[in-house]
Amino acid sequence: MIMDSLKNHVIQTCGFEIKNRGHCELLSTLILEQTDEFVSYNTLRRLWGLASGGNTQRRTLDVLAKYCGYRNFVEFSRDAPKMQFFHHR
Prior knowledge:
Elements: H1 2-14, H2 21-35, H3 41-47, H4 58-67, H5 73-87
């Protein structure tokens, strides 16, 4: 559930749905430009279910949270329940 919240927040931040490899490549570039940290498009493909793969690394979650304006994934996780409450009202 928290992963879905993070992915939704990333989509809101970048402004487009993640539906194919090209979207993942573009998102990878946007993340690098905004955070100065690299996340592979293949990692993003796995995260969005566009490719098979293992578990998402904590560093990746931290970078995605940073892309969304948070300090790290822990900070995002603390705010996520509050965001869901306001979005469902």
